[in-house]
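Table 4 source record.
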Amino acid sequence: MPNWLKGGLIALVSIAGTLAIVQMMRSPVEGRAPDVNVLRTADGKPDLNGIWQAVGSANWNLLDHQARSGPVLELGAVLAVPAGLSVVEGNEIPYQPWAAAKQKENYENWLSRDPEVKCYLPGVPRATYMPYPFQILQTGSNDILVAYEYASASRVIKMGKVEPPPVDTWMGQTAGRWEGDTLVVDVTNFSPKTDFQGSAENLHLIERWTRVNATTLDYVVTMEDGTAWTKPWTIKQELSKQSEKANRIYKEPRCHEGNYGMPALLAGARTEDRAFAEARGPDPATMCTSGCGGFEVAGIDDFELPDRATPASR
């Protein structure tokens, strides 16, 4: 065989291998069946108990993205955004035109709108793919508690019949059921203040939690809201088991009442309330307080820190 033909075959094999590896990295949870030896509870259901954590950069951007510097160049890698692959099936979020425009606006103003900056509750599904551990507790009543380290957020997955909630919340209402070895959870009744990729009170999530082996939990969540997106779309995230001995007691969360920025945040909120009451600004109840479009941090090198003393800066 001529050398040029051998070289061509080697190149084709190399390219095919590279594409296969990239695809496996992009969709780590697709098409995997649970290990038959996975741990189970007394009633035979998969044991989801333990401390879990998402590994990746979905918290900064759900789609493919390059690394970006932080808002203060002098801090180097501090507050920088790491590069990462998409966790969205197809690497595309099917925005309605108005939602795409709002996402772009959030993208350009993330530093003043990201609820993580304000220490607000992260909402669902973001709480699960943030880079902080969370604990799952399966109780004797079959209800399941999910306790997140970030902002001390928590939610109870009610198994069986669920009554309408008295109020809508940032974390929504969850109703779970088992489909084989997969925990399927419907999440509805979100607060109108929610803003996840353009969706608010009409947000409907279908989560699928599957323990595939002793150290891996697959998390697949499909989002539905015809007012914000043209069709449902899906996130696939792999969660890793953490050492329960090392993480037995959570560290004090960064967001708490002693936060030095809290007085300024509250003062800014009261300023917004007064501006609205005097017809000088928008209704604070309609402003973004959770999710805000994923906060893909592009073009922030030239972004100036906002002056929180005036409503115009928000």
